[in-house]
Amino acid sequence: MRQIQAQGSRFKVQGGRVRIAHHFSNATPDLRTATGFTLIEVLIAMTLLSMMVVLLFASLRICAQSWEQGERKITDVNEVAVVYNFFQRHLSSAIPLWNDFTVRDRVSAANQPGAGGDGMQAGDRHRRDDAETENQDRILSFQGKKQSLQFVSVFPASAGRSGMQLFSIQPQQQDGEQVINVTLTPFLPVTEGEEWRQEEVVLLRRVSDFELAYFGADDTGESRWQDEWLEKEVQPRLVKISIGTENGIFWPEMIIELKAVGVGIEANMGNATESVEDRK
């Protein structure tokens, strides 16, 4: 009997050991499968991640290029606006004056009352005759060629260079590129011992083409566009400015109407004073 019971106990123990071993042998494959990735899964994940990174950088590049193009377009538009405002502000208010004020000053001084019976001494008469002779050689302040232009305009009192200034505009080579250069010179004579304060400013860079045309009466009295406006007693009515740049930006032709055409010196001085008052 005892032997049979002992055998039954051993059988139960052995049976329990068999069940436990069987349990662990079945659980081991499940744990190994749940905590790892196969090589194919890793490759697929890396491929998807690479595609996402490539698309992200491509989008950022497109955004950067669009931003640069927008900034470049704004800069080009600002250049056109600056150049147009310059000509519209200064060229339209150009004043037709003679280039020599000393002749006019001598005539005015000769006409003042003096010791002579007719209010003029003999020396004054000679000076007046000389002044009248020199008047025949006077040159109008406005002189225009196909690629250069000079005129007199007024800066407001608030500017650093107030008063009438002689503007000289022409293309020049600078740092390996063609620019439109503006030279400013005081038009009125300086006092004795004072130096002319000449200033040069670059109006536009990377210029490939610069042409001017002038609309007014020619020698026959017919009004038409002309390539030059030299040695005339009046200013043209219109000035056409054509500009081309190296970057290929389209520049529309600018046509500037001159306010003063052929009025007298004194009237021009009055117009200049009014223009200065308006700009203050």
Topology:
Elements: H1 2-34, H2 39-91, H3 101-110, H4 122-135, E1 143-144, E2 149-155, E3 163-174, E4 177-186, E5 199-204, E6 207-217, E7 223-226, E8 238-245, E9 254-257, H5 265-279
Antiparallel strand pairs: 1-2, 2-3, 3-4, 4-5, 6-7, 6-8, 8-9
Helix pairs in contact: 3-4
Question: Would you mind describing this structure in some detail?
Answer:
The chain is an alpha+beta fold. The chain has two domains: 79-98 and 140-279, no CATH class; 100-138, no CATH class. The chain contains five helices and nine strands. The strands form two sheets. The chain has a five-stranded antiparallel β-sheet with strand order 1-2-3-4-5. It has a four-stranded antiparallel β-sheet with strand order 7-6-8-9, with helices on one face. The longest helix has 53 residues, at 39-91. The N and C termini lie far apart (132 Å). The relative contact order is 0.11.
Keywords:
about 280 residues; alpha+beta; 2 domains; five-stranded antiparallel sheet; four-stranded antiparallel sheet; 5 helices; 9 strands
Quantity of strands, as a count: 9
How are helices and strands ordered from N to C?
HHHHEEEEEEEEEH
Straight-line distance between termini = 132 Å
Strand sequence of the main sheet, in spatial order? 1-2-3-4-5
What class do helices, strands and sheet pairing give?
Answer: alpha+beta
Name the helicity range. 40-55%
Chain-averaged pLDDT: 74
Low-pLDDT stretches are 11-24, 101-123, 263-277
As a percent range, the share of strand residues is: 15-25%
Biggest β-sheet: count, sense, barrel?
5 strands, antiparallel
How big is the Rg?
45 Å
Shape: elongated
Total helix count? 5
> Number of folding domains?
2
